[in-house]
């Protein structure tokens, strides 16, 4: 099933290499602890990364990242976070990455951490807001409806199918999380908060359909930005109590541009995401500061 191992090991020209296989190898990944419940589409590429000369047989494979709906290995390498190994052969830079798969307990801790962080800052008043962490390609941990986010514990977190029937304890806004996970496999955690600046500016700029943040040093908190001489656009969509319809509108808007790190719902609040719960917390905090600064600057004009 793996073909001639020597065929690909001889082609590796670097200390770390990326190997890709076609769908014939899907069954071989079922034993990998991080590759359970995989959903493959065609065309499909599975990616395994490992240091040259350390992988001698199929049993030596380490599960790496998986890419969906990507036509070739080169595209996969350029669009996903590369898995790398240290001198001892251990994965580096991947701690807590939900793309590898995490347990419900681990995911719930991430949800609780995001919720309490937001609650301590007054971003989730009156049980508002919701948070989630991806478990794997098919499941996510989400805050249950009605939970007090500032005092959240694991009893207020549920496990839901990303593309399955609605969980009986899911909040009305669960579709906004789950559709994001379906559309963007690289996302590992999502937060929805009702910060004052985000809510005010979402109404002020609703007609324009977006708000542009530029010239701020803290823009560098987001991936791909390394200077204050940059701008970050945040899409704004109109509010809708039909959250399935709203989620579809959001994905339509996000697909039309980007890359985006969050969006605003007019008069409602901010959605923000990251590869992990920790990164999502950083993005939440950065967005709140930037939007607050923007609000003060606009008010001074």
Structure write-up:
This protein has 7 helices and 13 strands. It folds into 2 domains: 5-94, no CATH class; 100-299, 3-Layer(aba) Sandwich (L-fuculose-1-phosphate Aldolase), CATH 3.40.225.10. The chain has an 8-stranded mixed β-sheet, sandwiched between helices. It is an alpha+beta fold and 301 residues long. The chain is globular. A hairpin with a 4-residue loop joins strand 6 (130-134) and strand 7 (139-143).
Note the overall shape.
Answer: globular
Number of domains: 2
CATH architecture descriptor text of the largest domain: 3-Layer(aba) Sandwich
Enumerate the spans where pLDDT stays under 50 for 5 or more consecutive residues.
1-96
Order of helical and strand elements: HEEEHEEHEEEHEHEEHEEH
Could you tell me the radius of gyration in angstroms?
21 Å
Count of alpha/pi helices:
7
Task: Tell how many strands the DSSP assignment holds.
Answer: 13
CATH topology of the largest domain: L-fuculose-1-phosphate Aldolase
CATH class of the largest domain: Alpha Beta
Q: For this structure, what is the CATH homologous superfamily of the largest domain?
A: Class II aldolase/adducin N-terminal domain
What is the mean pLDDT? Answer: 74
| Widest beta sheet: strand line-up | 8-7-6-9-13-12-11-10
- How much of the polypeptide forms β-strand, as a percent range? 15-25%
Helix content: 25-40%
The biggest sheet, with number of strands, parallel, antiparallel or mixed sense and barrel status, is:
8 strands, mixed
The assigned structural class equals: alpha+beta
Distance between the termini: 66 Å
């Amino acid at each position: 099933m793996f073909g001639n191992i020597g065929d690909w090991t001889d082609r590796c020209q670097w200390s770390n290499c990326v190997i890709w296989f076609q769908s014939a190898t899907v069954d071989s990944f079922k034993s990998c602890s991080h590759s359970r419940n995989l959903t493959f589409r065609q065309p499909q590429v599975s990616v395994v990364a490992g240091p040259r000369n350390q992988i001698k047989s199929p049993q030596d494979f380490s599960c790496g990242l998986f890419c969906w709906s990507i036509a070739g290995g080169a595209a996969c390498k350029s669009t996903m976070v590369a898995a790398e190994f240290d001198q001892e052969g251990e994965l580096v830079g991947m701690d807590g990455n939900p793309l590898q798969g995490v347990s419900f307990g681990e995911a719930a801790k991430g949800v609780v951490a995001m919720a309490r962080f937001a609650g301590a800052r007054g971003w989730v008043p009156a049980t508002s807001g919701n948070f989630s962490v991806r478990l794997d390609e098919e499941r996510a941990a989400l805050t249950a409806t009605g939970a007090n986010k500032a005092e959240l514990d694991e009893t207020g977190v549920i496990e839901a199918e990303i593309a399955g029937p609605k969980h009986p304890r899911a909040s009305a806004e669960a579709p906004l999380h789950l559709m994001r996970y379906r559309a963007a496999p690289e996302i590992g955690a999502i937060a929805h908060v009702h910060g004052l600046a985000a809510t005010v500016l979402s109404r002020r700029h609703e007609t324009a359909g977006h708000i542009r943040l530029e010239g701020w040093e803290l823009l560098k908190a987001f991936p791909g930005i390394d200077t204050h001489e940059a701008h970050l656009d945040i899409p704004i969509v109109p509010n809708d109590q039909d959250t399935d319809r709203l989620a579809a509108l959001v994905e339509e808007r996000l697909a039309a541009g980007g890359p985006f790190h969050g969006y605003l719902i007019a008069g409602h609040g901010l959605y923000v995401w990251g590869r992990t719960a920790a990164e999502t917390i950083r993005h939440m905090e950065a967005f709140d500061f930037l939007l607050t600064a923007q609000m003060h600057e606009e008010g001074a004009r």
